[in-house]
């Protein structure tokens, strides 16, 4: 399973990208507004930092407007993937943009029927929102598992991009459910890397290293 980061804050992307684990970035209108940056400027800066897929979402609600906006944002960088909502207009735009050779990420997916429709419209990625499904008392990970199974059985090539990830176990469960990608918030990356035994082990090694013959008191 690949990792994308779910943010438009450049410093967060820079820090996690330095770990060498990122294959892409997802943004949405709320994340762009939270970054306080101009849409085009920030998407192009991110594209220059991370070589992989950068999802940039259209804000038009009609198919014609989505196609127009989609073509415009796709021209900003070869890495841009056009994010479209899972509505009739979004599906129509997905088909048109796919036919034009533009990659798409169909977002706000909350059911298997929706995911099947997006795949038939040619979506490159489908984004089921695990956390928001959990929020209404359903099982977001089970949704991801069923979408993946339906795609495999149907020979559909759309990649399952687990979204609305809230904690490290969501990442683990998404991987075990067969997701191709998980888009993970900065905070969850920082939670994923931490383990008390790693720090305690490292402290112990460094303490012992300092005791070796000839070690200066200042160097580990
Ligand atoms: C997906 O690409 C969305 O940007 C995101 O994962 C939504 O997550 P949220 O439910 O935490 O807002």
From TrEMBL:
GO terms for cellular component: cytoplasm. Its EC number is 2.2.1.2. It is found in: Cytoplasm. It comes from the Bacteria. Signal peptide: none annotated. This is Probable transaldolase. The gene is tal. Transaldolase is important for the balance of metabolites in the pentose-phosphate pathway.
């Amino acid at each position: 399973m690949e990792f994308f980061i779910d943010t438009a804050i450049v410093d967060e992307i820079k820090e996690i990208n330095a770990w060498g684990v990122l294959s892409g970035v997802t943004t949405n209108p709320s994340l762009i507004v939270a970054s306080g940056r101009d849409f085009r400027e920030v998407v192009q800066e991110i594209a220059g930092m991370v070589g992989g897929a950068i999802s940039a979402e259209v804000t038009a609600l009609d198919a014609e407007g989505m196609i127009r906006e989609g073509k415009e944002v796709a021209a900003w960088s070869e890495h841009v993937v056009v994010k479209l909502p899972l509505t009739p207009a979004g599906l129509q735009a997905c088909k048109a943009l796919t036919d034009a050779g533009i990659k798409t990420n169909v977002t706000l997916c909350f059911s298997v029927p929706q995911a099947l429709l997006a795949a038939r419209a040619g979506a490159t990625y489908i984004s089921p929102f695990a956390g928001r499904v959990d929020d209404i008392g359903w099982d977001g990970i089970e949704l991801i598992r069923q979408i993946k199974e339906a795609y495999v059985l149907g020979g559909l090539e759309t990649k399952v991009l687990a979204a609305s990830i809230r904690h490290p176990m969501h990442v683990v469960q998404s991987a075990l459910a067969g997701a191709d990608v998980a888009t993970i918030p900065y905070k969850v990356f920082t939670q994923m890397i931490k383990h008390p035994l790693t720090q305690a082990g490292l402290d112990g090694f460094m303490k012992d290293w300092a005791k070796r013959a000839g070690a200066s008191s200042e160097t580990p």
